[in-house]
Amino acid sequence: MGQDLLAVIGWIMGHEADDVIGVTGSFLVGVAGARSDIDLVCYGPRGYEAAQSMFTERPLIRPYEGETLTRLYLRRAKYMAGSSFDMLLRQESRKLQGLTTGAGAHINCEPLRADGDRTFHDVFAQEVGHISVLARITDHHEGLATPALYGIDVETVIASTIDEAEVFARRITHLRSYLGAYTGAFRQGDTVHLSGRLVHIQGPAGTGGFGIELTPWSATESYLANLAR
User: Fold this and answer.
1) How far apart are CA 90 and CA 142, in angstroms?
2) How far, CA to CA in Å, does 127 sit from each of 67, 210, 212?
């Protein structure tokens, strides 16, 4: 596995992407074991593009396919309850992940926003309650980096802790996820089952309406985003 990681680092250095792609997780702090993952991180649009290119390099990384898809499903289904096999794997296929060609270790890359990204600058969210909905993704372009921001249009309210949730639903315009599991997972036109915090958004231009937030503080059923169709 160490040789696989060195090969990946060699590719990063050779493509002059060492300022936007790095190693994190157990290898970063020197506690990796025989069954550890290789965790990478990339920053901003240039880092994402470089990582995308690297994950197509078959001498370095091979995709999950065939029998290994079952391994991936079992790996993800632990915290993505309620998602069917086909839908979960369709969702997972959009992420930067695969298996190293030597040791067959899981390798993934989490895209993060660049230091100068001001998407969430001076934006404040006040929790109103919890809500579960079916929503259509209307814009995914800001969903390719963590925190991910997706435009959404609520189709159906399934459950809510607030009264007259359908009234709020018409004003819910986006999904914001601090959970890396949902970064890059959805595309415009997808229908997604969302369960998270209903928040009132205020930004520099005034009130920004309502959104659904998935926080990093829990990976339970309370905070889920599963591809429905």
Assistant:
1) 20
2) 43, 10, 9
